[in-house]
Structure formats: C-alpha cells, structure tokens
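Batch manifest line 262
LIGAND: copper (II) ion
JOB: complex structure
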Amino acid sequence: MAGLKHFLLRVLTTLLLLAVPVLGVWTFVKAEEWGLWFPPIVSSYGAGIDNLFYVILWMVTVTFVGTELLLVWFVFRYSKRDPTRAVYTHGNHTLELVWTAIPALLMIFVAFSQMEAWSDVKLNFPEEGPYTVEKPLMEVYASQFDWRVRYPDAQGNFQGADVIEVPYDITVPADTKVVFRLKSRDVLHSFFVPVFRLKQDAVPGMEIPVWFEATQPGDYDLICAELCGWGHYKMAGRIHVLPKDEFDTWLAAKRAALYATE
Ligand SMILES: [Cu+2]
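JOB STATUS: finished
ARTIFACT:
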C-alpha cells in the first residue's frame, strides 16, 4: 500500500513538472491567436529582423524541450526508493568538450546569420534618392520627456527661421528611403518603432544617422525604449506615414503656414 502511494506521488510530481514545458510551449503556439505576438511589419527590413528572431526561437525551443523532457524523465526515474548508494564522479572530459563545442558552434552560427540583417539596418544607407546621410529628411531630438522632429528649410538647412519643429508627431513619406539624424538633448533615450522593427539609442553628444523605408501608410507608435527618468512613460510619439504625394503636400503646407497671417 505504501509502495503504491509512493508511486502515485512520483507520477503526480512528474506530471506537475511536465506541465511547465507543455504550458510554456502552448503559450507560444497560441500567442498569435491571442493577439500577443508581433505587430505587423511595416518596413522594408522588418522581415529580416523577424527571421533572426525565429532562428533563435527554434534553437531555444529544441534546447528547452530536450532539457525539460530529460529533467522530467530523471525526476521520475530517480525518485524511486532506491537503497543503492550515489555514484561519485570526477567529471567527463569528452562530455564537457561536447557541451562546450555545441553552444560555441550555435553562437558562431547566430553571429554569421545576423550579419546581413545588421548591415542592412545599420550600414546600408541610401546613396541616392531624395534623402541621404548628408541630406536627411529630418532631425529627431529626444529629451526628457518628449520627441521633437525638425524639418529643414527648402535649402536643407536645419538652422534658421524656416525650420519646422513638431513635438511628438513625426510625419514621413511611404515607399521612400528616409534618413534622419537622431540626437539627444540630455540623457540616453531609444527611438523604437515596433512596426518598423527599428530601435536606435539616442546618445547625448552624438548625431546618429538612421534609415528606414515604411511600406504602408498609417499611424504607428513611437516609444522610448531606454528608461530615461520619471517621465519615461510619457515619451509616446506617433509616426504618420503618408503616401509620397500627400507627404509633399503636407510639408509644403507646413512651410507655407510659417508665413501665414490670420
Ligand atoms: Cu526617453
């Protein structure tokens, strides 16, 4: 009777432990259906970033499921009332080599597979087209606790009376490679647009060029992704992506309004 009770307790413990990986994997399987997965991709390089995520997610999933199953099995197997003494071991050289080599190879694989996406986002600035690093569409300033965007005057100058400055709302053209300069007026901030899969720190004292190409007109969230002070939560901006011709009209109207009299 005591033997049966012990066996049932072992089974129960094992099943409880098994529930952890099963529920864990289940939440990933159902996440999209529950609306907890990624927002849509609205930039030209977004899919490349997501692919990197999926490569790593699969690596982690295989490792997680494998180790959890092994753990569950061990818990069941070795919770038996067993009078044999524990075996002492001084390690196993081959085993240690294997479990060092496999993660190292995986790391090297990750390092190589991310190179293209990284260079696309951080290095492949447009060399022609309306906006380049030398001739950006705008400057974005992060400060405690807001975003400000500056559009240059018609000659491309960012200083002077004809510069347009708008808080929080950033308007950009769709289907156009947009370059902007990111600056901070005080501390570290981070320019994060989830639908673009774009995140770039704003560093005081630096002018960091950033590029993206929005593929779908619409209004999207801009978030500060670096805890920058008590008002960090207030740094919620909006990105308005307009069709190219509408953007040109919008900017022209903004410039005209500078000299409008009531
Ligand atoms: Cu911030």
